[in-house]
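Researcher: Re-running this chain for the archive, since the previous output was lost when a drive failed. Same request as before.
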Amino acid sequence: AVLVNGGGQREINFQSHLHHLQRLLGLLQASGVQREDIAIFNADGTDPEADLATREVPGSPDFWLLPESGAMRLLAPPMVYVDSRLDGFTVQPARKEVLAQWFGSVGKSLGAGDTLLLYVTDHGEQNKEDRSNNTIVLWKETLSVAELRDMLAQLDPSVRVVMLMSQCFSGSFSNVMASAGAEPSGAVCGYFSSTADRLAYG
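Model: Regenerated structure tokens:
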């Protein structure tokens, strides 16, 4: 399993992203996946600098009913920036070069009968000039559909890849399944939270 939360920068790397990683890690381990078979790429990795935006839970469960641009903004607990951690796991920075290194090394050790889960809980950006090549927001950089396709191309063709992506405009990443004009091999499938031209919230 490859788990990715780039976050972009600390101001928009929300605590919910870290919670999503924690919940999936719990599910994977409960399903028998070994720790050494899980690669995590989260924000700035093990850098001790603050990389996560968080705040205390509001006192009332009805807080969300307040107008976002008025009372909610005035009464919301202050935003606090902390260092994100996933205790017990080796965490690498969500950077393009580091991901490429994983696919060029560990990824190449996968073979027939192996399934790779590629999970992304992150922000996504729309490429208005080519919506078939949108991007995932990594840590202070982005990763495009074409770039991810090139990384996956390093895997043995017999490896099954299952993508689960929750970022905005994530539907564009269905184009990873095949190069332009080519038929999908059937080795790659995925679930995407939104289409290539729509946000994943609101």
